[in-house]
Amino acid sequence: MSFSPGVSNPSGANIIQEQRDRWARKRSRVARELVLTEQRYCQQLELVNTYFVEILKAKETLRPSIVEAVFSSIKAIHSVNQSLLVHVENGYLGRGFDQFCPQLHHYNSYVDNMYNARKILAVQLKKNRAFRRYKALQEARPEFNNYKLEDLLPLPAQRIHQYKHFLQDLTENTSPEDPEFQQLSGAARAVSEVSQHIQDNARSHQNHLQLCRVQKLLKGRRTKVLAPGRWYIREGWLRTVAPKGAESTPRMFFLFSDMLVQAKRCGPLHPTHGGKFTGQHAYPLQECTVDKVFGHTKSQGGLLSLSFPKAKLLLMSCDQEDINDWHQSLVSAVGKLQSKNTSVHKRDELCRRPLRPAPDIPQNSEPPADGPPGRKRNMASCELTERAQTPSTSSSTTGPAEPKRMKLAGAPSGSVPEPSTSSCVIL
Question: Strands 277-284 and 232-240, how do they pair?
Answer without folding.
Answer: unpaired
